[in-house]
Amino acid sequence: MKSGLARIVAVPCIALWLLTGLLSAAVAQEPAGGEPTAQPPGGAAPDSIETVDRIVAVVGDTAILYSEIIESIVQAGAQGEEIPELGTPEFDALARQTLTNLVDSRILLQKAKETDIAVGPDQLDGETDRRFREIRNSFPTATEFQDAVTKSGRSLVQYRQWLRGQVHSQIMIDEFIRANRDKLPPVSVTEEEILAYYETNLAGQTRPASISLEQVVIEPTPGKAAQDSSIELAEQVLTELRDGKDFEIAARQYSMDMSNREQGGDLGWIQRSLLVPAFADAAWAARTGQPIGPVPTRFGYHIIRVDNVRGGERKIRHILIQPVIDETDFRRTGELAVAVADSIREGADVRMMAERYGVREVPVRFPEIPYDQIGQFGEAYAQALADPVPGAVVGPFQSEGFMPGRPVFAVVRITGFQSEGAWEIEDIREQIRESLLNEKGYARFLEELRSEVYVDLRL
């Protein structure tokens, strides 16, 4: 599993790494409804691991399956962690520890749901976009990513909706932990514990290079003529549907959402929280079986039909009409990006520029990213930041966008860079102390929560 060094580098607080980073894979097993679900790309157990599924724990009113342990371990292996051989005592110990993490994540999520924590749509969409790009960029090509999604039994839209549900759960846990940070039981950390941690995890090891940055991501927008043309086409499609044209045939003929076009625009059963607000508002106001639209979102104009309703879910089909982005639109956006970069070089605040000109869902600040992971932002970022200088403004440069064939322009200000080197105790003593204090405090906090939730371990 991850070393102490990796924990310190990735997240300053060991406890938060344990409770939010390590448990993110555990939370990813539970959709919004609380039932086990199929896994995303990379989440299915490899052919070499075959097991008869069974319930290994019950937490409150939800069950944890043995397959979820295997899936979490496989995800950890895909992230570079060393996994013991199946059937060994080391693997069994890892499985038990993974189950503990799964149980703790379910407890935290259940307690979070009992509070008044609310996750805003902008926050949810932004983090979902970030996570989606991170996963997409972990694949060498877009085709390999698409193939992996298809093998998971989902379209790209369905996969993103699934991911949005997992992100929602993770944000709930994060907010619950933050809200209770001041309620941690009092603990103490001795100098001996600090030195022991350093000697065990960091002494003699190399500190990887890290980079901190701020960014503005500007997305090309279609001109008025293209928007008017798309609205006209969407209204034509809507008229054809109301005159009796089969929705599935119309979707295959007109829809520009390639992830579900051949399925007749079928999005499956969806919860409202998994959709962008404008789409969700329209779908939840629609009559069953009646096509409505055009509904504008940042992706284009949608014709929506709700086929069925059950509880808080809707079975939905849609047709997406996207305005054409032409060379004039790209040139106009590129000129805007140059102006934004010049303003930042002259002292303009990056966050202010991002709020005014950037895609609102994209995070602005990224503190201390391991430098060897910058490629997760895309190959264009890796090339643009190949020679990082603190304080420099890089760009604008084009990077892969949120929709196929629609690149975005990025402007990056490098706020810090730390080169590779040896860990020195004096440099990180207080960081270790704070991390251990939080780790101890959260361990006791979790013990108290476990006493409030029914837990039945069967492994």
In a few lines, what is going on in this structure?
The protein is an alpha+beta fold and 459 residues long.
List the helices and strands and how they pair.
Elements (H helix, E strand, L loop, with lengths): L3 H7 L3 H8 L2 H4 L27 E5 L2 E4 H13 L10 H25 L7 H17 L4 H10 L4 H24 L11 H11 L4 E2 L2 E9 L5 H19 L4 H8 L11 E6 L5 H9 L6 E6 L2 E11 L2 E9 L5 H19 L4 H8 L7 E6 L8 H6 L8 E11 L2 E13 L2 E2 L2 H26 L4 E3 L2
Antiparallel strand pairs: 1-2, 1-13, 3-12, 4-9, 4-11, 5-8, 6-7, 7-8, 10-11
Helix pairs in contact: 2-16, 4-5, 5-8, 6-8, 9-16
What is the 3D form?
Answer: globular
**Sequence of secondary-structure elements:** HHHEEHHHHHHEEHHEHEEEHHEHEEEHE
Q: Give helix % range.
A: 40-55%
Total domain count: 3
Coarse structural class: alpha+beta
Question: Any guess at the CATH architecture of the largest domain?
Answer: Orthogonal Bundle
Total beta strands: 13
Radius of gyration: 24 Å
Termini separation (Å)?
A: 20 Å
Major pleated sheet: 4 strands, antiparallel
Count the helices. How many? 16
CATH class of the largest domain: Mainly Alpha
Looking at CATH, which topology of the largest domain would you report? Answer: Triger factor/SurA peptide-binding fold
**Percentage of residues in DSSP E strands:** 15-25%
Overall mean pLDDT: 80
Parts with pLDDT < 50 across at least 5 consecutive residues = 1-51
Give the strand line-up of the largest sheet: 9-4-11-10
Quick tags:
four-stranded antiparallel beta sheet, 459 residues, Chitinase A, domain 3, Triger factor/SurA peptide-binding fold, 3 domains, alpha+beta, disordered N terminus, 19% strand
